[in-house]
């Protein structure tokens, strides 16, 4: 059996630019792969922890990146999780997760865009069903949102989402291949080592991270080009159709001084 998806496009599945939160991952049939992953209460609890000891090598790799890159990799990992359970988990939960992901990419552009809430308490569907991993994904997105808006360390929760995606992929190594190359891809434009050590505020202003940055076919060129893609993404959003996006009035009420969504 071929190990896919990898960081190389699948035949006939060339990604195209899209403002959808589904992006590249929505074009791959991950849910058709065997649900051969292990899932139980101890695994769930470990994924809801934030201890670097769970994967010291991954923690070290993430620790070399700026927060916006760690955030972006985690949101992309959430897209893997959703694509993995789409068509198996309840459609309403999948849609909710996609709306959260859409809002999180907007949050990466400016903290005023999103207003995530804690997902409802999990109903207790027994594993190995897809419902609980998706609930963990939605919960972790909320926690990462909270850490971002409060200016707290977010690496632990972001690592949890990455480990969740790796868990639900089971024996299929495509995610691990993608992750290694995604981290390597982020090293140049989002290296923590490039920050001025005397500038304590250098991490407070995030560099633009377009949602398609982690697509296999995307090539980063300049910060300005990345910003143009982020602006195009924001312009394609409609807060009237996503409860996790603030509308223009709400954003201004919360202190946003620019043009929300480019309007």
From TrEMBL:
Full protein name: Uncharacterized protein
Lineage: Bacteria, Bacillati, Actinomycetota, Actinomycetes, Mycobacteriales
């Amino acid at each position: 059996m071929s190990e896919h998806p990898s960081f190389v496009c699948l035949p006939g599945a060339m990604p195209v630019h899209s403002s959808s939160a589904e992006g590249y991952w929505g074009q791959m049939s991950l849910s058709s792969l065997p649900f051969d992953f292990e899932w139980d209460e101890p695994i769930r609890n470990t994924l809801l922890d934030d201890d670097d000891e769970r994967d010291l090598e991954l923690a070290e790799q993430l620790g070399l990146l700026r927060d916006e890159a760690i955030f972006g990799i985690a949101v992309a990992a959430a897209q893997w999780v959703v694509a993995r359970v789409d068509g198996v988990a309840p459609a309403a939960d999948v849609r909710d997760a996609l709306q959260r992901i859409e809002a999180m990419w907007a949050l990466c552009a400016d903290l005023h865009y999103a207003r995530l809430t804690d997902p409802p308490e999990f109903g207790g569907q027994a594993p190995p069903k897809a419902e609980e991993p998706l609930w963990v994904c939605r919960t972790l997105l909320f926690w990462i949102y909270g850490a971002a808006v409060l200016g707290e360390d977010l690496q632990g929760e972001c690592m949890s989402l990455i480990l969740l995606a790796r868990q639900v992929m089971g024996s299929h190594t495509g995610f691990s291949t993608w992750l290694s190359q995604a981290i390597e891809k982020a090293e140049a434009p989002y290296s923590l080592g490039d920050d001025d050590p005397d500038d304590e505020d250098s991490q407070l202003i995030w560099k633009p991270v377009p949602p398609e940055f982690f697509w296999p076919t995307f090539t980063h060129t300049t910060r300005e080009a990345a910003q143009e893609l982020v602006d195009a993404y924001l312009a394609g959003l409609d807060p009237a159709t996503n409860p996790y996006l603030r509308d223009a009035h709400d954003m201004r009420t919360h202190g946003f001084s620019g043009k929300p969504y480019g309007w």
